Amino acid sequence: MLSPLAARLAEKNGYKNVRVFHAGMPAWKKAGLPALTTNQFLKKRLGYVVVIDTRGPKAAKAGHIQGAVAMPLDQVISQREQFPLDKKAYLIFYSDGTDIDKLKKVTKQVAGWGYKNVFILDGGYQGWLGAKGPIQKDMVRTKIFYLPRPHPGEITGDEFMNIVNNKPQDKLVLDVRTKAETAGGMLPGAVNIPVDELSERIKELPKDKEIVTHCRTGLRAEMGYNILRNAGYNARFLNDKVAILQDRIFCCFK
Length: 254
What we know:
The chain is of the alpha/beta class. The chain has helices at about 5-10, 25-30, 40-45, 55-60, 100-110, 125-130, 155-165, 180, 195-200, 220-230; strands spanning about 35, 50-55, 65, 70, 90-95, 115-120, 135, 170-175, 190, 210-215, 235, 240-245, 250. It has three domains: about 1-30, no CATH class; about 35-135, Oxidized Rhodanese, domain 1; about 155-250, Oxidized Rhodanese, domain 1, CATH 3.40.250.
């Protein structure tokens, strides 16, 4: 079951039996249903996210994901005051395996505290070992330390708006929303190529400029960023909300 955008991309790549989950991930999370993340995602973001080893300190001493905090599953809720003030922080929980049934109650409660990015690691610790992810032994952390900072490839809202307002010659803002969305307004100086057309139209973009992608919420902007980086472009993306209403720009709002 795919999002409308992913469904269009799948159909373009020849898949026939494609169905769409119109409500999308926000509705899935709002319903309190568990969301999985991958080893590949976590590998790219180690040091930028909070990783919680729900097996506890004893198991973690024998080996745990690099930088993870050992917090027994039955103690997570009582440690609420440890969790980041930043509700956009990525929180990734893992056990020995995927163990959705064991972890979903706690992740639902943590998401209920207002956190937007709460995930269970697909495959758990054993899957991480199989993927040859970095591990540590003995040095077990039991307290969360989180320093908010942009993830790899992200641009801050302040820098993004500085580019929008000053239009430096070595930058290009790429709007990856649909034509229907851009009919309501675009950022001045931005170029529009919908993300599901980007691979086919990528040669329309200059390689001598840094390209900064944006959409409405940040999800498609990151997809566009990955397409550009894989094609050898210098790119970043805005992982935040942008709206253009009555020719006024609203960026990075909650």
